[in-house]
histidine kinase
Amino acid sequence: MTPAPRRLGSLRGQLLRWLLIPLAVLVAINAVSVYRNALDAADLAYDRSLLASTRALAERVSIVNGRVVADVPYVALDSFETDTLGRLYYKVTGINGEFVSGYDDLPPVPAKAKRSDIYPALVRFYHASYRGTPVRIAALLQPVYDDSMRGIALIQVGESLDARYDLSRKILLDTLWRQAALVLAVAFLSWFAVRFVLRPLMRLTEDVASRAPTDLAGFDAALVHREVRPLVHAMNGYMDRLHALIGGQRRFIADASHQLRTPLTVLKTQAELALRASDPAAMREIVEGIARTTDATVHLANRLLTMARAEHGVAEGQLVSVSLSDTARQVGMALAMAAVGKDIDLSLEAEQDVLVTGNALLLHELLANLLDNAIRYTPAGGRVALRVLAAGDGAVLEVEDSGIGIAAGERERVFAPFYRAPGAQQVNGTGAGLGLTIVRDIAALHGARILLDDNEHGGLTVRVYFPA
């Protein structure tokens, strides 16, 4: 069982989703990138401030009486303990690793901590935990010397990360707020933009909805966007085909009513005469006339229906591979008795199987009309030949007779509905004038072309060329 097609939603909604969802993803990626860059910039700024505090402390480290001392005033100690940006801790270690001043339990420098290349100083930055609080520590190697000794002292200054965390949260919230405002602004503008862009399509929808059922005029493709114009052209093409179909139906109804009116009037007159006739012989003659008129009417009705099928497409089935040779044999067998009745030599030349793509019923009608015309307009004792030939990738159907032929000046007009050449009217006064019209319509439906030509027997040769 074929699953039901998924119902499409709003075009405006789909456009907005395809615009805003990728935009939101890109904005989120951008927000993360901006946030990380801001954190890196904040870390750089705080590390620079931390290094400045470390250098300020290093300037107060010296050698006195052969010992490393740190001359840190009370006010400086107070500022190191509690800074406006967070809590600060420091430690000074002497040349030989001895504790000099500060917080002796400050975490040591990890072995994997690398020297910073950003500043022209022997400083390393690292993260640690001190007294349950995460801290960032700057470790500076400071040369110290006097006349008696020289060496390298280690000055460590740590800072709690509270200020950095506060700044990070502020940067994050500010970034998210700005990005959210940007997304909302884009969504608002996109909604109006999509609404504005779809306005011509909405007008086209209103134009289609307000059309009268009988109004089959085309729509102006210039009033819509370039991407929608193929749809408008397709709609106009469909309207043209629908107009042609309705016009064909109207012509068929008009032609059928016009052509059937005369034989029906004759039938009614003959029936009234038969009702008033008292002589059995006269009544029989009238009834025979009724039978002939009825046969002619049935023939006309069948031709009209065949023409309607040919004009309005392949209603009886899809296009398939059809053997022209087999179809010719079937038609020849069906009309053989009519040829025998007129002592006509009917021959079929279809030695090989020639295939074409088409509708089997309509191709049968095409062959039947051509062969019926050839037998009907060929005098007694004449000849009719039916040939099916292969021509490259295509096929050729030939019907050759020794009949009255068609004058060169009449060969275009004989394809018009109900038109009959003067010679045809003299030979057969009851014809409908639809045979070649049906042949033309069926040939056009199959992409074939027709050629009428004289032959050596003085009659007519009809060739139908079928494409590959």
